[in-house]
Structures
1.
Amino acid sequence: MKKLDKITPLEEDFAKWYTDVVKNGNLIKYGSTKGSVIYLPNSYGIWELIQNQFNKILKEKGVQNVYLPLLIPESLFKIEKEHLEGFNPELATVTHVGNKQLSEKLFIRPTSEVLFAELFKQSIDSYNDLPLIYNQWANVLRWEKTTNPFLRSREFLWQEGHTCHSNPLEARKFTRSMISTYAKFLKNYLAIPVVIGKKTPYEKFAGACSTYTIEAMMKDGKALQAGTSHYLAQNFSKPYQIEFKNKNNQKEFVYGTSWGITTRLIGAIIMTHGDNRGIIIPPKVAPVQVDILELFGDKSDKVKKTVNQLETLLSRKFRVRVDRSDKTPGFKASNSEIQGVPLRIEVGPRDLENDMVTLIRRDTLEKQLVKIDDIKNLIGKTLDDIHNNLYEQAQIRLNNNTIFVDNYEDFKKYIAQQKFVIAPFCCSDHAEIHIKEETGASSRCVPKEFQKPDEEKECIYCGCSSKTNRYVLFAKAY
Amino acid sequence: MKKLDKITPLEEDFAKWYTDVVKNGNLIKYGSTKGSVIYLPNSYGIWELIQNQFNKILKEKGVQNVYLPLLIPESLFKIEKEHLEGFNPELATVTHVGNKQLSEKLFIRPTSEVLFAELFKQSIDSYNDLPLIYNQWANVLRWEKTTNPFLRSREFLWQEGHTCHSNPLEARKFTRSMISTYAKFLKNYLAIPVVIGKKTPYEKFAGACSTYTIEAMMKDGKALQAGTSHYLAQNFSKPYQIEFKNKNNQKEFVYGTSWGITTRLIGAIIMTHGDNRGIIIPPKVAPVQVDILELFGDKSDKVKKTVNQLETLLSRKFRVRVDRSDKTPGFKASNSEIQGVPLRIEVGPRDLENDMVTLIRRDTLEKQLVKIDDIKNLIGKTLDDIHNNLYEQAQIRLNNNTIFVDNYEDFKKYIAQQKFVIAPFCCSDHAEIHIKEETGASSRCVPKEFQKPDEEKECIYCGCSSKTNRYVLFAKAY
């Protein structure tokens, strides 16, 4: 075990804090290709738990998992022009195998719309085959210029769902239901509150008709797009010729959706819940939920025996790890904290004289002397408390740092303070580009409750009273 | 739902039979890049169940899952020469991003030894950090010239385990323990018997010191390599400088192993258990274990009610699917059979008059009229019976088609009949290359029980009595 490094306080330098946390929490190592990252057990374990638990939710929604190829031939990709243009500068391109040049360029998938299009074309015959609801868990590549572990990596892991429907109403409804499913998942499993909304035309996905998003607030006040759901209309079914016979035996193009969450969520966990001791992992996705630390075990048979008993007892219901090493109690505690384990039990000879052990919560750092007989019942309840506390703290922060403004001066002031700013806005590309240049903020979404136009309020940027005016959430973003 | 195609009888044309089975069993579609395959729910579901169940076994062995980058820089790959030379003709190479040429070629991983080497170098300090036992589930690419779904695809999915140990004994022991773990997994979960053995020098993995394998017999008598475990010695730790401080505080290079199973196993399932109606999926990895078919449900409320009751009852314990469509009973039955669902329950008005339903096993096609009240207890037992029967049939076939020979004439005769042939052999590259040219057979392994030399037996090819002589298993292979 290498020595634990110090973590820069988050109040001092948030970016440095983040880097220190990811490097020290058994979360990542850097790979040798620039911008590539190795997921160590403590971060990959979070992703596996997200996968397992989200798969159950998907199954209840009638989703079936499939797996499509990594490589997309250029000829297939360029059938949908807006989509290709959106991704082109980020596409990693295979041109050779061994020393031989290929007859056609192959792109490493940045997303799989065009592959799914090809699959759907082969699979759909009539309305009886619809809706067709597929999902895949996969790695994708986008050659980002600046990278940051979890938040913006050239390769990332995600789930991408792709569906076909016989009519636009059903497809739109499915698009919206997925964004709600994501919001609920983040609340119930990651303890992260979000703002649900719709992207402006400028920020929507290349190739989509409309994009819904969930936006979370990080501890520095910046926004993180945590999941998206796109209504594709017939944008892919027309160029890729995905047709079905309707009940009148006439051919129609299907209506599509796609939706995804990624390993960014691990970055969201760190920056929503982390503190100056490192990451704090919400219990439901914590690879280790309970650390049992054997303190001075070499001097006491009773300590060893109790540790073994607790391990057997708790492993049945929780993800438990035991540290029996000969390291100091201080090192063991720091190691557990820096890895964000939600609960730890310290078993030492002094407490054991009274048949007690010490239970320490990672979120509040609260210590509690507990009778050994009471431990079993306490763990489940305390893990729930930790989840609820993490969520509540994040919700309070989100509420306290979201501000409504009606003029551009206030807008600039609060954006400079890294707040979430909601303002009436005309949603034009032109205004959006200028606001970004002038303030560094981007539109995050039109929150759910403001999706009806509000012509009476003047756009904070151009002063117009357009029927495209909406209350729009702006923020600096990851 | 498109029409089900006919399956060519396996006795008539085994290769055509295989293609028909994979195309019709909701298993694959072909992608648009040559040699690329789309895994549909029925095959990807098998892989997910393999993953989930094998992960539990890995966890018990102290294995931790990680995830490493897809792309390997050329400079990193070429540090170990034998390894690079072995893979070079099959390496898909990224040279461009968008329109820009990269300063260094990047290879899509064909396996991740060199990436793990880099990770281990960063992670290991002293003997306290050993053994270090990592695994990853990932996609890899090898540009095969001829391809066949599941068996030989350019992209495939696998698990690759990589470990570091402080001494060769422990590493060798771990290598062997993994090959036994694979053999046990295939027996207990896929109902596939295997021959465990060691590869000859000519057939071992590029970069390994020794390679262990499990070889299964397909229904046409050919061998399929179903899993491998490599003892890497210090072949990677020396060039990649993976050192640890031993108990005397001296630096030493670690001893490595690597081991993997792949989506080939789905091909192995098809060709071990399949019949002229399609795939038969062993119950433990069947995405659907029980199909409930509602027959003439529109005419009878009782049918619908019973189907709903059975679904609720059985879904608690088994993976259940219900076909409530208005298709014919014959179509529904064929559809269930072609997808290899181990058990189906047909619920029709005539049987229901006596409170009975019909239970049909996919392996024996045996039909049984069963009282509804007895169904619940019968399902679990029958699924076990199916597993055991599939295993037993395969074991009998393996035994009956494995032949010992002591001369090259018999050798050629039985190889031509597509048997597993065990013969004394000197294990020289030269003899092995000639045998392959002359008979089409390759050495599969030195079976476990024959790994001690047998100098008394003359090599069937060159007649020598060398101390490298072993009884070696030969066969034509996938």
2.
Amino acid sequence: MMRPALRRLGAPTAALASSSLSAAAPSSRLLLSRAAAARPLLAQQRQYSFKPSAASTSQPQDIHPGSLTITETKTPGTLSKPEDLVFGRTFSDHMLTIEWNKDDGWTVPQITPYQNLSLDPATCVFHYAFECFEGMKAYKDAQGRVRLFRPDKNMERFNKSAARIALPTFSPTALIELIAKFAKLESRFIPADRGYSLYLRPTMIGTQKTLGVGPPGSALLYVIASPVGPYYPTGFKAISLEATDYAVRAWPGGVGDKKLGANYAPCIVPQREAMSRGFQQNLWLFGEEEYVTEVGTMNFFVALKNKETGAKELVTAPLDGTILEGVTRDSVLALARERLQPEGWTISERKYTMQELATASAEGRLIEAFGAGTAAIVSPVRSISWRGQLVDCGLKDHEESGAVTTRMKNWMEGIQYGEEEHEWSYLCE
Amino acid sequence: MMRPALRRLGAPTAALASSSLSAAAPSSRLLLSRAAAARPLLAQQRQYSFKPSAASTSQPQDIHPGSLTITETKTPGTLSKPEDLVFGRTFSDHMLTIEWNKDDGWTVPQITPYQNLSLDPATCVFHYAFECFEGMKAYKDAQGRVRLFRPDKNMERFNKSAARIALPTFSPTALIELIAKFAKLESRFIPADRGYSLYLRPTMIGTQKTLGVGPPGSALLYVIASPVGPYYPTGFKAISLEATDYAVRAWPGGVGDKKLGANYAPCIVPQREAMSRGFQQNLWLFGEEEYVTEVGTMNFFVALKNKETGAKELVTAPLDGTILEGVTRDSVLALARERLQPEGWTISERKYTMQELATASAEGRLIEAFGAGTAAIVSPVRSISWRGQLVDCGLKDHEESGAVTTRMKNWMEGIQYGEEEHEWSYLCE
């Protein structure tokens, strides 16, 4: 279905004819072959960059799921063995793409064979990090149906991230409908076993071709899918963290609460440094007070026992702009309020310091700690390196997870795999 | 010249044969045509993403200018009229590319026709902002020779930026040699007139194809070139700034002192807000003290008169991690120390607050203010909006620039265009 606004883009014949103007250097073939071995090269690649154009009188349009076109691949890939799956390395057969430009708004959504993006080297995504993304999963339930988990929360955050860097927003329900169709189309990539899923990566990039620093006049939203296995295939394995204050991930008034590419690259060197000292992740501290914010690329929770009353408290940092608004964080909080609070737990979103944790640990009041995120759901923490001491997080030597951590994982998976009927689970129909 | 490390990449024939597996959707032709109209589509596009590979025993190599291959375009572009040039919108005929991977190090440098980059949608540059860049210019002197300005400073910063986000570093002199060759090859794009130049954009992006968050195993360094006219074609035009505290560009321990893409996208919305109120740029304040850091995408200088002594002081913020280490900033400071200090000026890199500027302005002691950066060299400032007041920066109504600002521009241009013999000017031979 073609909308009038697209018609004037015309002249496809001339454009395709010009593709014969190739002048690849002989030596570039070597480089070409390396990547091509991994993924077939398409002769007619899509170009997503375009020149900034004059303002138009046409009304920008929202995403329109009804106009979706689907072109299925003629060369379906072979499935990896479930046990060989590595996070984010292999991808399904297709991708969902929707282009936007400031004159026309969102154009026709397309599902096409998974393929490279062809972009002018001056495209703003390469220079000014006009990029944001989401992480979500599609699960297969016992009836073989495909389910998403709280896609509305991902769409809400995706829109917030996009708006913060002057990229376009969209109707959340429209994109959920398209993602559901895409996930169903790729359902053969979702192993039926518990713990497996299809990781979905909605991504938005600015595609305007100019080095001028300004709002992108065009963008591409795309969704790719990567089959993933359980984060801990042989059961939980507790990690250890390095409390980090020499590098600062996020700050008030910054963008650390948005899921922007900009928040990730700067964390790699500190992560590598922590790993070189034997710690799997950073625990990001903030300010002279050394507030605990989040861990690596997850939110962070601690279970504490009150010094006076002995009452139990599940604590995580508040949404003050320095932590990501995790969907798993929100889910853990909601489940804790529903299922732990009646058992006498206090559920707190509050500031807390590394000193508070160290003191609680020394006094035997740090019950357990875990990271929370889409990849692992929950990730138990054994210890935190801080100022030369190792703060013990409550696990016994033979344990790899605390009781709350394990219960949370089970509750979450029960909902994600449709074993428990719950409004958070979205059936792809 | 081919190096042994490259040989095993092999199988170019098979790779090219696979390019016939095209399966573009009919409707995607429309989208294709839009971009293709701007830039011819090359049938054999280079793919820069490749799969993470197992570790190799080969020794990573540095950039090797001697192995440069040049493939000149068969369809040279027409030159824009100098008066039509818009910053960063039109590009020269060629581009310089050098690929890196962790096994081989830097591979053969190539100058090829300017062309799109073909990248897997899972490439880390799109997701985690593995990208950094430089801004520099090539100038044509009175003898028609091509000159760079302090390229060693750009290379030093480029390496610092790359290292901060786990991208590879390189020999500064090797890349300068290649950039000089590239600039000479494109010299027809540099108009001979004063104020014109060829803006050079060295860029490095992570090209590894994985959604895993870690150090990229491969990268692409490329340089593109855009002919630019004088920033102020009809003479200086003073700008007005909005002092911004609700959004924070940089933070100690963050990456605001590096030239990363990550620092740019988050500044667009605040810039748009300032513009909506009639101010061309943000003046980024920091902390409760409201320290003045930098302006928009430039460093910031103010000329003040001492309240007691009447002595003149040229002030800019110190390199404390919250401001970019500007090459123009460094040059202005050096010229000021050499040429203003003997006239009685004090040259200061020190913290100063917005309140200090407002008080100086109210007392008639704010002599002038200007931004400093590669694009404009210096950009005079008329006023700063702060807490509902307009802080006057010392220009008379009929003036568009202060005396120091004008002298700086002339000194800098004199060196850049080779009119004054100076070690900062690098002759491309």
